[in-house]
Amino acid sequence: MAKLDEIGAWLQKHLPALIKEHQVPGAAIAVSVGDEVIDYAAGVLNTATGVEATPDSLFQIGSITKVWTATLIMQLVDEGAVDLDAPVRTYVPEFRVADADATEAITVRQLLCHTSGFEGDIFTDTGVGDDCIEKYVPTLAAVPQLFTPGTMFSYNNAGYSVLGRVIEVLRGKPYDQCLRDHLFTPLGLTHAAANPYDAIRYRAALGHLQTKPDSAPEPAPVWSLARSNAAAGSMLAMRPRDLLTFARMHLRNGIGPDGSPVLSPASIAAMRERQADLPYLGMMGDSWGLGWEIFDFPETTVIGHDGGTIGQSSFFRAVPEHDVAVALFTNGGDVMQLYLAIVGKVLAEVANVTLPPLPTPGAATPADVSRYLGTYSSDVADVEISQDDEGRVWMHRRMKGVHAELGHVDEKIELTSLQGDTLITKTPIHGIHMPHAFVGDDGQGHALFLHSGRADKRVGA
């Protein structure tokens, strides 16, 4: 196709310069229109070794894995083995959180669309054995409930690890073997790895982290997060072209490359149905389906997901109306600006979709900030919202847990008005000004949650 050829020529010419401009060590991209696919790569997979990034190189796809996990669950729905609205304990009796009522009430659907309501960033390492997810589930027994299941959205990695256990119980084999047997094989994937032992057979990217604000990205200290979080996105790696094979199955009503059904049309449609709305959070979607993030652009609806692991970031968008998909994988640097430059160009040219501009801070501080002030907490950070003597509002984020161990630094940054109860960072974080919505009410006129995709609950005035 002429448009795809033009995009290919543009990528070949500009990708090396763009990754250099944004300090991205290496990147790989694939674009599909119908059955036609192009892919390109530039840079290196590891700055310490200098190994060249190629289109067949494997990058971790991070939380894009959640769409794969959701697909495995929907295959079980097709087989009559899973009822989306059944309690999770129907399939995993040992599942429990701190709140007894929530333990009994949380459903498979709520895990899929991030409305289960319990603390979600739980990255407990339970080893590398085939029983690691089985061992992980009981570690959630003391995890607090943030809100009543089904009442709001809060991104939840732990919930997807539990879904991984649902899959294991019903299939009778480890999660990574389920990926191979029920998706890799029927899709004919040749460059996909469910764990590091598979990935080492290929050219595999290593993530890179900035240890200081203005420093160049350096190789990450470890390759991946724990295997116990594999179903949430800690392990799965592949080349961009293989991700687009998965995308084209979804765009073909569940039909695989050889014409055999991988998922039913009913399940394909169900995964794209809106399940939960999000507060306005910049580049995040407008709502969530069963696995898919949903973007309501003026031109059409786009589905997708992003992923972030230790120094690797991935971006995945599909436009059903135009039979278009794009996957961009990176291993460090200012990835948000690279995403805007490359994916923005691709979608505009082949799908007539214009990415909305990222939000920018206004000059004003809210007249009354008393609703926002206080301390909010999650398993990965404590966040204090304060006001100084000059009336400026500050967000001080103190990292803890696995994020602190991996070198994520504390941040203190000024917030200004954006819209309504959403404030925005005055200076960029990882290349973008980040919106933070203050939602709910604690009964005393204060926001109950600080929401940036995850709902961090107020713990102090």
UniProtKB/TrEMBL annotation:
Annotated ranges, domain Beta-lactamase-related: 12-333
SUPFAM superfamilies per UniProt: beta-lactamase/transpeptidase-like
Q: Name one GO molecular function term.
A: hydrolase activity
Which keywords fit this entry according to its UniProt record? Answer: Hydrolase
Any transmembrane segments, and where? none
InterPro entries in the cross-refs: Beta-lactam-related (IPR001466), Beta-lactam/transpept-like (IPR012338), Diverse_Enzym_Activities (IPR050789)
Q: Which Pfam families is this protein grouped with?
A: Beta-lactamase
The record's section on Gene3D superfamilies has: DD-peptidase/beta-lactamase superfamily
Q: Supply the PANTHER family for this chain.
A: BETA-LACTAMASE FAMILY PROTEIN (AFU_ORTHOLOGUE AFUA_5G07500) (PTHR43283:SF3), BETA-LACTAMASE-RELATED (PTHR43283)
From the Swiss-Prot or TrEMBL record, give the protein name.
Serine hydrolase
Task: State the organism of origin.
Answer: Amycolatopsis taiwanensis
Give the encoding gene's name: ampC
